[in-house]
Design a protein that fits this description.
Number of domains: 2
Mean pLDDT: 88
Shape: globular
Radius of gyration: 25 Å
Number of helices: 17
Strand content: under 5%
Number of strands: 3
Structural class: mainly alpha
Distance between the termini: 68 Å
Largest sheet: 3 strands, antiparallel
């Protein structure tokens, strides 16, 4: 197969992908697009495949870079594109990438929709991860994972096509991956389970975990949002009293989250236990929550902390910081908040996303059985 002997400056070798951010190179790429425009040429005429990956990952359409895709999302996109290229180059014959000619030293320009379809099918049924799981008599990738992988690659190739870097609509080669509520991990959690966890860490004299859970479940914040909070983001409400948080969410959008009095007090206690300066006198740009070393949590480290602490508790689901965001939505619904208000509180752009958080509880609440009158069954229900 021609891909097995494919060597070009357009792509790094399979052994060492280099899609890390490089400010100098990004400035060079910007200069290339401007020169192409000035010469009335296609903007990406001088780009290589590697340049297009870097542009997709790191070029911001926003005036201020902190208002675009989050660093965590960028890393996920980077990993997915790297895996695609690595698999395509290593397993081209197995996948069935029958390319007869490399066009313009570009793998992307040489692909056709059928190659994308074959890759997607191979990834789901015969890739190394799937083979390993089958050998263990386990399932391969979950439907939700395949849907996420498809969405990322489809978006990437759609941009290449719309930028006119490639002539083939590769994004149309992907088959649809329809995810139902039963395909998603069980992230449902109501007030009773949350209270059990809070009580557990209270009894274990672990105020750090107690506070982290309490803050996450009463604010609905994302893991990354909590980790990036600074002292200046916790402010006194001069109108209604108490405190609120200014939270920077996806797309660089801010939202204000009021804090219940006990939640604010718990944050103060958290800082006291950590030996941190009170928020009234702390440096405004210092982290609100810190690890034992005094550094801000990273999203991945916070995940590790939750995994470690909850591994000590018997549970039928994996407990992550994100699960308490779902709990916020469910508990808000139980307490009568309408779905639009929940959507705005979570910082969602689309109400459909919020509905996914509450799919099962909404289905239960809307069941016809709730309309039955007990009297019709003479006390049997």
């Amino acid at each position: 197969m021609i891909l097995q002997n494919y060597e070009s400056s357009a792509l790094p070798s399979t052994a060492s992908f280099n899609f890390n951010y490089d400010q100098q190179h990004m400035e060079y790429l910007l200069t290339l697009t401007e020169q192409s425009e000035a010469n009335q040429m296609p903007r990406f005429e001088e780009f290589t495949d590697r340049d297009m990956v870097l542009w997709y990952l790191y070029h911001s359409k926003q005036l201020f870079n902190n208002r675009g895709r989050s660093k965590r999302s960028t890393l996920k996109y980077k990993a997915e594109i790297e895996q695609f290229l690595e698999f395509l180059l290593l397993y081209s014959e197995e996948i069935g990438v029958d390319i007869s000619e490399i066009k313009d030293h570009s793998l992307f320009k040489s692909l056709q929709p059928r190659h994308i379809r074959r890759y997607q099918e191979w990834l789901a049924t015969n890739s190394p991860y799937v083979k390993k799981k089958k050998a263990q008599n386990k399932d391969g990738y979950s439907i939700a994972t395949l849907e996420r992988k498809t969405t990322i690659l489809k978006g990437f190739f759609k941009q290449l096509f719309e930028c006119k870097y490639i002539n083939e609509p590769l994004h149309e080669g992907f088959k649809s991956v329809n995810v139902t509520s039963n395909d998603r991990p069980n992230r449902d959690m109501g007030p009773f389970e949350v209270v059990e966890f809070l009580r557990y860490f209270e009894e274990k004299n672990n105020p750090i975990m107690f506070t982290l859970i309490l803050v996450l479940v009463t604010t609905g914040m994302r893991n990354e949002e909590l980790c990036t909070l600074k002292i200046e983001h916790m402010r006194k409400d001069t109108i209604k009293g108490g405190y609120y948080l200014d939270v920077l969410g996806k797309g660089g959008k801010w939202r204000r989250i009021p804090l219940k009095a006990k939640v604010a007090a718990s944050i103060m206690e958290f800082r006291k236990i950590r030996g941190l300066v009170p928020i009234e006198t702390a440096e405004k740009d210092s982290p609100l929550f810190t690890t034992k070393t005094g550094n801000a949590y990273s999203p991945s480290y916070l995940d590790q902390v939750f995994n470690r602490e909850f591994s000590k508790i018997e549970s039928n689901k994996a407990i992550t910081p994100h699960i308490f965001r779902h709990a916020f939505a469910i508990i808000s619904h139980i307490n009568g908040a309408d779905i639009y208000k929940i959507m705005k509180s979570l910082g969602h752009e689309k109400i459909e996303t919020t509905i996914i958080y509450m799919e099962k509880v909404l289905a239960t609440d809307q069941h016809a059985i709730h309309e039955w009158e007990a009297a019709n069954f003479e006390g049997y229900i």
